[in-house]
Design a protein that fits this description.
676 residues, mainly alpha, Serine Threonine Protein Phosphatase 5, Tetratricopeptide repeat, globular
Length: 676
């Protein structure tokens, strides 16, 4: 090593002078030594990670078995070099808390947030420590809650901190000053405003009654709202006695509808819309209008009556509902009134989209082109933009000689709204495919962790391997990760729904290779679906789509009318189909067997298809609305193609069902094709 301290040797080393044979041997030996040290370190780290996982696994098994003291000890053995250490410390705190050793629990929580201040468990550890310190060390608890509120005011922990800061002040002395009472009241009302049905609402409502706080009109309205959400309608009404009718009528109408006092609820709604619409919460106003309309046998008549009242706000909402329930002959004029009378309303775009679609149905193509282009220039709602762009393409294809113009509309739907039903229809048109089916094959791909595997992902994978799903939920707020956790637990239905809702919130959809799509469109039970589809000639991905929309992959699903299982079969239908194919159905429970349900559902779909000339669009409609209804529509409706038939289906539920099933079918074909 002395050579490395020699300047002449260093000059040689960097290439200025040639090295001697002895010096070369020294360098090689040093390099080999460093390499071996690095390799040994890597092996040690790998061994340490593996050992930490073994220890955590055993500790967690003890935890689940209720061996909490041994679990606490085992978790303490997880190395501080392991990424599992913060989770292990948190588990130690939970063990101590479960056996009511609160001092030990507080120490572990403090260890975690002091040593891992940026870790995802840090904030909640501080919250739990503060919660346990409220009685014994209120000063320290107050310090922690103030830090939580400052760092994360909009989180559940920040909102809860508002309650505890009020509670600490409330219990600090029996002789509160007026200023202290006002501060407590403001803390409590802030909580009720942000979380009107939250965990600590009951405590707040009880403490308000005994603390003689300075409660005002707006405070009573918040209190009434919380009682209403908790289902305590009597106390909700009592709180509203302190609020002028001008401010309370909408919530009062909701409460009285819930109590079954329809006449009083209707009178309050009419009173409010006549004089005081601007003084109430707009969501409460809309709820009151919805309840009013739904309790009347003639919804259109009820909405027409409500629209006649001179409400300064909310009339655009009422008119939009009125247009939706209008007779077909009056819808165009109704939507025109909405569009022209309320140009700044959030429903104006919806009105223009409906005007466009009605004009298309009436074959008023010149006007439809103008309004379709106007809509696409002004609006970009996911609800209507794909439909307008697609139908504008169809109108242009019918009435224009410019092929590029109408094809650009179809391509635009696919590019901007790739997972939409109308993207599926646009694809068929672009490729001159006149049937409903693209192909009968998808490449099966497993559900994987939905993001790049980084440090956080590795921790999640380790915890999933251990089966510590509760900890995974504690650590993760991302909805797609939550979906993946549910999938790891085998809760396929919940997994799909969480991922579906998360994907709906994303405006610019990821490409089809993004792993999140597999959570939105999983292929659960696909082996059974393929097996029985091949027996009867059904399209396997289409049956998979039906299963997704019927039950969300929940084999225990049961509808309010008695349909059960993955393909939601009525018991009478299942018995009839079963008798034809040698399958005995003894009870409704048999429908919850995945194989039995898929087998009978496949036979049933094939039977519908055979009676409807092999048309899948008609068969899917019949699966939901009944074959009698479909035959009646096909004979009474005037339509030139599949698109016109679907748009004219009289049952909104069936129309939406057809679009949802073929949207799912399209996405299965889109996502599960090609390479990984």
């Amino acid at each position: 090593m002395k050579n490395f301290e020699n300047p002449k040797f260093l000059i040689k080393l960097i290439g200025m002078n040639p090295l001697t044979k002895k010096e070369k041997i020294i360098i090689i030996a040093v390099i080999l030594g460093v390499g071996l040290a690095i390799a040994a370190g890597a092996v040690t780290i790998a061994h340490s990670a593996s050992r930490a996982l073994e220890i955590y696994t055993q500790a967690f098994e003890d935890y689940k078995a209720g061996n909490l003291q041994n679990s606490y000890y085992q978790f303490s053995k997880v190395s501080f070099l392991s990424d599992l250490k913060p989770a292990a410390i948190y588990r130690q705190a939970k063990c101590a808390e479960d056996i009511e050793d609160f001092d030990a629990a507080i120490k572990q929580y403090q260890l975690l947030f002091n040593n891992y201040p940026s870790h995802r468990l840090s904030l909640r550890s501080k919250y739990h420590a503060a919660r346990l310190l409220v009685d014994s060390r209120p000063d320290l608890a107050q310090k922690y809650f103030e830090e939580i509120l400052a760092a994360a005011p909009g989180t559940d922990y920040g909102i809860a901190a508002e309650y505890f800061l009020g509670k600490i002040l409330l219990t600090s002395t029996s002789d509160l000053t007026d200023e202290e009472k006002l501060e407590i009241k403001n803390r409590y009302m802030s909580y009720l405003k942000k979380s009107p049905s939250g965990r600590w609402v009951q405590n707040i409502l009880s403490e308000i009654k005994i603390a003689n706080l300075p409660i005002g009109t707006q405070d009573y309205l918040l209190i009434a709202k919380s009682y209403y959400l908790l289902g305590d309608l009597k106390c909700a009404n009592e709180a509203l006695f302190h609020v002028p009718a001008a401010k309370s009528w909408a919530l009062g109408a909701k409460i009285n509808f819930s109590l079954g006092l329809k006449s009083k609820a209707k009178a309050l709604t009419e009173y409010g819309l006549s004089f005081h619409a601007k003084d109430v919460n707009i969501d409460d106003l809309r709820d009151a209008v919805d309840l009013y309309a739904k309790t009347e046998p003639n919804e259109y008549g009820a909405l027409s009556k409500l629209y006649s009242y001179p409400a300064p706000v909310g009339r655009d909402y009422i008119l939009n509902l009125k247009c939706q329930s209008s007779p077909a002959s009056q819808q165009l004029s109704c939507y025109r009134e909405l569009y022209n009378k309320y140009p700044e309303s959030e429903y104006t775009g919806d009105a223009l989209a409906n005007i466009f679609l009605i004009q298309v149905k009436n074959k008023e193509y010149a006007a439809a082109k103008i309004n379709g282009r106007s809509y696409l220039n002004k609006y970009s709602s996911i609800k209507y933009s794909p439909m307008v762009m697609y139908w504008l393409g169809k109108v242009l294809e019918t009435s224009s000689t410019d092929r590029d113009e109408y094809k650009s509309c179809y391509r635009g739907v696919i590019a901007r709204y790739p997972d939409n039903y109308y993207a599926y229809r646009a694809y068929l048109n672009l490729n001159d495919m006149h049937g409903a089916i693209i192909n009968n094959y998808i490449k099966e791909k497993e559900v994987k962790y939905p993001y790049e595997i980084n440090k956080d992902a590795k921790l999640n994978l380790h915890l999933a391997q251990v089966g510590d799903y509760d900890m995974l939920f504690e650590l993760n707020d991302d909805e797609f990760v939550k979906s993946w956790i549910y999938y790891q637990k085998g809760d396929y239905s919940h997994s799909m729904l969480v991922a579906r809702d998360a994907m709906e919130k994303i405006e610019d959809k990821p490409d089809k290779y993004d792993l999140r799509w597999r959570l939105v469109y999983p292929i659960d039970y696909y082996d059974l679906i393929k097996k029985y589809s091949s027996h009867v000639g059904n399209n396997s991905p289409l049956i998979l789509a039906i299963v997704r929309e019927e039950s969300y992959f929940n084999p225990q699903a049961q509808s309010s009318v008695g349909a059960g299982g993955l393909m939601q079969l009525m018991p009478s239908t299942a018995k009839e189909i079963g008798s034809k194919h040698g399958v005995t159905i003894d009870s409704v429970k048999d429908l919850h067997n995945p194989e039995t349900n898929i087998k009978l559902g496949s036979y049933y779909y094939a039977e519908l298809k055979s009676m409807l000339n092999g048309l899948d669009i008609s068969s899917v409609a019949a699966y939901n609305g009944g074959i009698g209804s479909v035959n009646r529509w096909k004979s009474s409706l005037y339509y030139n193609d599949t698109d016109e038939f679907v748009e004219q289906i009289p049952y909104q539920e069936t129309k939406d069902y057809v679009k949802k099933v073929f949207r799912s079918y399209w996405n299965y074909i889109r996502i599960y094709s090609g390479n990984e």
